[in-house]
Design goal:
Radius of gyration: 28 Å
CATH class of one domain: Mainly Beta
Helix content: 25-40%
Shape: globular
CATH superfamily of one domain: Glycosyl hydrolase family 63, N-terminal domain
Number of strands: 36
Number of helices: 20
Distance between the termini: 29 Å
Strand content: 15-25%
């Protein structure tokens, strides 16, 4: 096993401050000192210990790793980077753009429909009840098309950008509206620019209150202008604008509604909401605008552009008006051709409608790539309250624009598996940003909530990240794909791997130290609640599989088969990278050999009675939630766990995704009888098999579809999840092409599972307009949040048979 040779900063400082020998004074000894130490001295000691905690112990928690950055240090001179400087990097709003620069300009679009009430749309919300929204084409760089179906209204939005090293950047947003009902329909469109940082902006307006031009400067854009070509508006369109200073654009829709004036500009129109012009708060004495919005209220249909240009830009470079229309047709054709060349779906016999579904799933993933900047809230057992991580940027995809518009560590490794087949430069950029989040301990916070917009979507109890909590290191799946591709094409990017390698080493050391089990070669997810009696089975959020049943009574003696497999994968990839870089790889090869050794794996995790790989721990086979009376009259009843059979150290008797991990990560020999047992169970519809994909937990399991608390419905206890199904299809494809006694069975299961997943997801997309977070294991219907075009987009690789 690879063991860290360094003493981790927190461990060493803890020894220095608290005493590292038997006679040393610890913080727990302080009460006894009151007997012999005068109060004044005791107060000084308390201050000293507080200083030690907050100043000496704390920094390793919120200090970046002292190593060269993984992000390209010469990014300002990188043409590939600059082509992606501006983008649709605000995935939380229906249409928003920004540059990959902290505290800079952001821009976006709102719209409002009128059906007896004002429905102002800005951030992606389930409650808006849109029939469908999302990118139908997006290349992840400088082109995207989106379709939005609101009540009786179709909006088509298009984004294009262009970069020239000589003169700078330009981009255009076009919004087109079309009625889906026979009657005339009114709509309000609001286009805005907001400056998060330094600089000034102003605008010129016409007599009709139309903004003719918005202009300004920032430290990054010495001079810029924004204008709004109006190609198709009704003759009686009403124009309004707003110039103001806002502290943030969080809840922008609510703020605008609070200042809008209600009126009827035309006698045949209903009352509409109108921006009020200049709005200044009494406390703002400098009157420097940082927010300007332009509103047009018009009858459908309409078409309108928003064009951004830097000051030095020539008209020949800009893309607006007829140039935009012509360029758009070319970009659409280029995208469709590239998509087919990449995934060969038409060649595989898929229909035009099925290809449209795949294009949308892919486009929503890359179109959801966002840029964030801010500070995480973090905590450790060495500090008494949360502290801020250092300010950091993050370029990452997001799982869901409506519900999870932020970075998730284990999700992102799956996301980039798909992007890797499209644009490796994006993958390397994303990987580098995530690896630069590593602190001096080797830890990466598993959920990234950076900036006001991201934080506004997260309940307070989920904001703080604990430094003992891991998340599956799925980036090693991405790296495995990259390294294989580099090696096969003989285009190994040694410069990139050299920047990444020391960070990957420290990350691996952190896992190997903090998540190790008590028995050699075992691992245990930290973060489970050992004292609660409110949960049927205490969650393991850090595993990514949340409420999947583990040992019912968390303890130091348990160990988890999925984490061992992740570590086996990680050590193998690190060994390959070390070999490519000419580094000493012996320790990683040794660890990989140990963790993937069939004999040791079977000894620790094979439950011979049930013929499955399993977790091991303090487990009861009979627990349930029961209603209990409140401690005081008048209080509501509540539920708590009742243990009907005392726990014992044993294999956990549940069966589901966790039990498949040696198979999912291809660590079972193709000749092993264990593989045969797993394939038999896989196909059995009494366990995981359904006609819509593999369910997450056997329907014969006592935890199947059970609430974990009275308010906590089942999550990974039966529903079909596409990321794990992707790993299963990938593994079946592997074993179906390996010599061995189970080859034919694996091939047949591969064909059936692949067909089931494609059919069900396509049918649900056609029925609902969305790709979903999970799918019901009985009906196949989409469940959870939508659109969920993070790892559910892996259906594209399943269709393309790219593993």
């Amino acid at each position: 096993m690879v063991k860290s040779k360094r003493v981790k900063p927190v461990q060493k400082l803890r020894q220095d401050v608290r005493g590292s020998h038997a006679g040393g004074t610890s913080l727990s000894d302080l009460p006894r000192l009151w007997i012999i130490v005068p109060p004044l001295v005791m107060s000084l000691l308390a201050i000293a210990f507080y200083f030690a905690e907050s100043v000496i112990l704390g920094p390793s928690l919120n200090q970046p790793l002292n190593a060269p950055k993984a992000v390209n240090p010469d990014w300002r001179n990188d043409s590939v980077y600059n082509e992606r400087l501006w983008g649709t990097y605000r995935s939380n709003v229906y249409l928003g753009v920004r540059p990959r620069i902290p505290k800079s300009l952001v821009a976006g679009v709102l719209w409002m429909t009128y059906d007896g009430k004002f429905n102002l749309r800005h951030t992606c919300e389930h409650g808006d009840g849109l029939q469908r929204y999302g990118w139908i084409r997006h290349d992840g760089t400088n082109f995207g098309q989106q379709e939005i179906l609101d009540k009786g209204l179709t909006l088509r939005t298009e984004f294009m950008s262009r970069y020239s090293a000589d003169v700078g950047e330009t981009w255009t947003l076009r919004v087109r509206g079309q009625s889906r009902v026979e009657r005339s329909q009114l709509v309000t469109l609001i286009m805005y620019v907001y400056n998060e940082g330094a600089g000034e902006m102003a605008c010129s307006t016409s007599k009709s209150n139309a903004i003719e031009e918005l202009f300004g400067h920032t430290p990054e854009f010495s001079g810029y202008r924004v204008y709004f070509p109006r190609k198709a508006l009704s003759q009686d369109a009403v124009h309004n604008y707003m110039v103001s200073r806002l502290p943030t654009i969080t809840n922008l829709a609510g703020h605008l509604q609070s200042v809008m004036k209600i009126g009827s500009p035309h006698k045949n129109w209903p009352q509409i909401a109108q921006l009020p012009g200049e709005v200044w708060s009494p406390s703002d004495h400098q009157h420097k605008a940082n927010f300007i919005a332009y509103q047009v209220t018009t009858l459908l249909p309409f078409e309108m552009d928003m064009v951004f240009e830097t000051g030095a830009l020539s008209a020949a470079i800009s893309i607006s008006g007829e140039k935009f229309t012509s360029e758009l047709a070319s970009r659409v054709n280029q995208f469709d051709t590239r998509f087919e060349n990449t995934f060969q779906l038409k060649e595989k016999g898929f229909s035009d409608q099925e290809i449209e579904f795949a294009r949308a799933a892919f486009s929503n993933l890359v179109g959801g790539i966002s840029y964030f900047y801010g500070q995480s809230k973090v905590i450790s057992k060495d500090v008494s309250k949360p502290v801020d991580y250092w300010p950091t940027p993050l370029y990452t995809a997001v799982p869901s624009r409506s519900f999870f518009p932020r970075g998730f560590l284990w999700d992102e490794g799956f996301h980039q598996l798909l992007v890797a087949h499209w644009d490796v430069s994006i993958v390397k950029d994303v990987l580098a940003h995530w690896m630069d989040l590593i602190n001096t301990e080797g830890w990466i916070p598993r959920e990234q909530i950076l900036g006001d917009e991201a934080r506004s979507k997260v309940p307070a109890e989920f904001v703080v990240q604990h430094n003992e909590n891991a998340n599956p290191p799925t980036f090693f799946l991405t790296l495995e794909t990259l390294v294989e591709e580099m090696t096969s094409q003989r285009k190994v990017d040694l410069v990139f791997l050299r920047r990444l390698y020391p960070r990957l080493q420290v990350w691996f050391e952190w896992f190997n130290g903090t998540q190790a089990g008590e028995i050699p070669s075992t691992y245990r997810w930290r973060g489970r609640n050992e004292t609660t009696d409110k949960e049927l089975n205490p969650k393991t959020l850090t595993s990514g599989l949340d409420d999947f049943p583990r040992a019912t009574h968390p303890s130091n003696q348990e160990y988890h088969v999925d984490l061992r497999c992740w570590m086996g994968l990680a050590s193998g990839v690190l060994a390959k990278i070390a070999d490519l870089l000419g580094e000493n790889s012996a320790a990683y090869h040794s660890t990989h050999s140990t963790l993937t050794d069939q004999t040791q794996l079977d000894r620790l995790h094979w439950d011979n009675k049930r013929k499955v790989y399993s977790d091991y721990g303090l487990h009861s086979t009979s627990v349930k939630l029961v209603t209990v009376n409140p401690p005081q009259p008048g209080m509501p009843k509540f539920k708590r766990r009742k243990v009907n059979k005392e726990p014992s150290l044993r294999f956990v008797n549940s069966f589901g995704y966790v039990n498949l991990f040696p198979f999912l990560l291809k660590m079972v020999s193709p000749h092993s009888d264990k593989l045969g047992y797993l394939l038999e169970r896989l196909k059995n519809d009494s366990f995981l098999w359904t006609n819509n994909g593999l369910r997450s937990l056997s329907r014969a399991d006592s935890f199947y579809n059970k609430h974990n608390t009275e308010h906590d419905p089942p999550y990974w206890r039966g529903a079909i999840w596409i990321n794990i199904n992707y790993l299963a299809v990938r593994a079946l494809h592997h074993y179906g092409n390996e010599e061995g006694p189970h080859r034919n069975k694996a091939r047949k299961l591969y064909q059936d599972l692949r067909a089931n997943l494609i059919r069900n997801m396509y049918n649900e997309y056609t029925r609902t307009g969305y790709v979903w977070e999970q799918y019901d294991d009985v009906t196949g219907k989409g469940k959870g949040t939508h659109p969920f075009t993070g790892w559910s987009s892996l259906i594209v690789l399943i269709m393309a048979e790219k593993y």
